[in-house]
Amino acid sequence: MNTLSAHTASAQHSRMPARGWRLDTRRAMSLRPQVPSRLHITQGRAWVTLGQAPKGAANESGDLVLNAGESLTVPAGARVVMEPWQPGAGPVRFDWCAEPEALSREEAGRFGREVVTPSRELGVALGQAGLAFARLVRGVFGYSEFLVAGRGRVLTPYESNQP
Fold first, then answer.
1. For residue 35, what are the domain limits?
2. CA distances (Å), 85 to each of 63, 74, 92, in order?
3. Is 34:99 a contact under the CB 8 Å cutoff?
4. Is residue 130 in some structural domain?
């Protein structure tokens, strides 16, 4: 990579909006997923320890260094501890999602992005609107005695409009 392309790539990277989770310098984070998940580093370098029984050669203890753009599949029940690898370089940004979600994001084509995802969001929004309407109706019926004031009830002089 020559200096011009490196400069252009870093300039494009700096203009990208920050997304995902942020792990500040001199901090560590521990995660224990209940379902198979994926850790994807979007910015910086992270030292990741995957708490599993050692497998393979003696140097395969579960410690990994992940750079921006690299991913790690984490099995269910495994303990993951991560921290920034170079504290002077700034925070690490990462995405964390369940493995089925990660696979569906990768495999989703144009139809998935433009039709399936908005329809799911619309379904959730309509469900929330329905619940809000039900709470509104319940609230209005709770105040029905005040809406029908004067029927079967004697009004005090302060509540009535005397001529």
1. 21-107
2. 12, 19, 9
3. no
4. no
In degrees and rounded to multiples of 5, residue 64 shows phi and psi of -135, 155
The region that residue 76 occupies, defined by phi over 0 for left and psi between -120 and 50 for alpha, beta otherwise, is beta
Task: Give the model confidence (pLDDT) of 47-56 as tens digits.
Answer: 898 876 666 5
Q: Rounded to an integer, what distance in angstroms lies between the CA atom of residue 34 and that of residue 96?
A: 13
Neighbouring residues of 29: CB distance < 8 A, sequence distance ≥ 6 = 23, 81, 82, 83
Smallest CA-to-CA distance from 90 within 21, 22, 39, 10 is with 22
pLDDT digits (tens, 9 = 90+) for 127-151: 999 999 999 998 888 777 666 655 5
pLDDT of residue 11: 40
Q: Look at residue 70 and tell me if it is in a domain.
A: yes
Q: How confident is the model at residue 135, as a pLDDT?
A: 93
Q: Is residue 125 part of a domain?
A: no
The tally of domains found in the chain comes to: 1
Q: Domain holding 95: CATH number?
A: 2.60.120.10
Q: Residue 96's closest CA among 47, 31, 49?
A: 31
Q: Which helix (H) or strand (E) holds 38?
A: strand 37-43
Query: Which one-letter amino acid corresponds to residue 155?
Result: L
